[in-house]
Write a structure and sequence with these properties.
single chain, about 425 residues, about 0% strand
Length: about 425
Amino acid sequence: MEYYSRVLDLTNNPAHARWLSPLLLGAESCLCAFIIFKIPYTEIDWEAYMQQVSQYLDGERDYTLIKGGTGPLVYPAAHVFIYSILYKLTEGGKNILVAQAIFAWLYLATLTLVMACYRKVKAPTYLFPLLVLSKRLHSIFLLRLFNDCFAVGFLFIAIYAYQHRIWTVGSVAYSFGVGTKMSLLLAAPAIGTILLQALPFKRAVNAAFLMAQVQITIAFPFLPVNPIGYVSRAFEFSRQFLYKWTVNWRFLHEEAFLSREFTVALLAAHLSLLLLFTTTRWLKPSRQSPLEFMANLWKSRPLLMHQQMALRVTPAHIMTSVLSAMAIGLLCARSLHYQFYAYIAWSTPFLLWKSKLHPFAIYAVWAVQEWAWNVYPSTNASSAAVVGCLLIQVFGVWWGTAQDTVEEDSTADEELVGHKHVD
């Protein structure tokens, strides 16, 4: 009985994450080195990235004229700057080993941040092994070198900063992530509700303006030449994805997948889920109805009342809101490619835990999802599993947090809220 109690304590007590996290990171360092030296690198987009940034380095500033082996440049300017640095560090992209070493460092740094975010919300230790067991995630970082790796890194920098009430750093990191790949726009609705409850209205608006300024600043080299061309390419919402590469909706017939009706249905589902989560979950710290909250936005609240609301924007609420918004967007995306798993792999354990699932159920759903994302090419069964697992996460976290009461964050110093928020 005593042994059983010790096992329960070891697997459930968040305090043990303090020593478990370094152990897992150490093991991951060795595993990353093994993967780099023993498993062949797979070329997918790296050469195209290098071809595109070489044109930028040669002086091309018209975004519509920058192209690579896989087609035109379709990512925002931060992607160009990041891969321009990598271009110089890897001898024009030729030294793949150096590139893989950089991505291994990025993987370990991001994993460290993810674990810190989990520790901040006092997640049980049985979740932590799931953060390091994904075969597909290792492949995305170490063998494919996708820009999603940087984007998800910026996302977790933003979550970590917001959890510690460093709002300016979090907003800059988030905007830079959007400037790397626009997939992070999926989290924008949740981040908006967080800032509007955690900050006075004017400060929240200033944070939004700061994010916009970051976008303008990184795009500045291209805007004077062809501003419309830059925006249309960097944020191309109408881009069509090929049916043969889809991971999530393969079980549909191609005609249905490509139909306008399916696109409209997914958009309607996305907007409906955002409305559902905003009105019933993401505005909980305000303790007001959505209409009351909107009506009071422009009113000057008493300082004490605002401080109390801001303190209810807890680290757990922040992480749940942001990651559930990402899961909603990915569930309603018409086409997911394999690299999109970077946004899912580290979110799933947390969202399943917040769904109040039994640990065995959490591991089971995680295993099915991991299997589905490792099937190549995708099949009817694997794509149905991808969608099914995202459905479980989205509706599970909504159901699991129904009875949650958002209490004030006892770890937050009052000087960090109200008119004295940390920048």
